[in-house]
Structure formats: structure tokens, C-alpha cells
Amino acid sequence: MSAYSCSSVISPFVSCLMGVVGGRMKVKQQMQNRLRELEPMPELLHSSDQRLQQMSQQLEQFQRLHERDMALINDLTAKVKQHHRRYRRRHYEIMCKAPMTLSANQISFLQRQYVASKSEVGFDHRCCFKTSSKIVR
Asked: Which of 21, 29, 102, 129 could bridge across to 106 with cysteines, CB 3.0–4.6 Å?
């Protein structure tokens, strides 16, 4: 009877122990499966890191090119504005400030036409004409 009682006491313990060992084996198997799933991760991380570095370098290169292009655009814009100001100033000098140069024939023709148009209304033309020292012959 003592053997029976001993086996009846040991049997639940053994089954409990087998359950624990079986559970540990199951957990161990799950962990090994998970390790197999994670094996390619270091290579993926390494390749992702390399791509990130390449893209960062490419971004820096594009930023440098953009800055260079913007500097060129600003320089050209300033030059165009400067030339435009010069052109406007020169155009003003030519059109407004520079004395008109006429030949002697052209001056006399214009005087005759002016006199003819004003003599009809009795206008004294002698006070209106100032002779210019710049007469092209």
C-alpha cells in the first residue's frame, strides 16, 4: 500500500513536472522560432543605414547645388537690374537732356514753317528763336 500511496503522491508531481517541462519546451521552441525570424534583421538594418547615409549625402549635394543656383540667379538678377537702370538713365539723357542736333537746312526749314504758321495770326517770331551753337552742316 505504501507503494500505491507513493505512486499516487508522485504521479501528480510528475505530471505537474512534465507540464512545466513541456511548457518550457514550448516556450523554448517559440523563442527559437522568433530568433529565426529575427536573423535577417541585422543585415536589413545595415542596408537601411547605408541607404540613409547615401540619401543624406545626396540631399546635401542637392542643397549645395540649390544654393549655388540661387546665388547665380541673384547675381544675374542684380546685373539685369543694374543694366536696366543704366539703360533708363542713358535713354533719359539721350531723349531729354541731350540737345537736338539739326543741320542748318533743317533749322531754316523749321523756322520758315513756324513763321508761316504764326504770321497768319500776327505773332512776332523774332523773339522765339534762339540760335544754338551746335549746328551740324
From this structure: 102
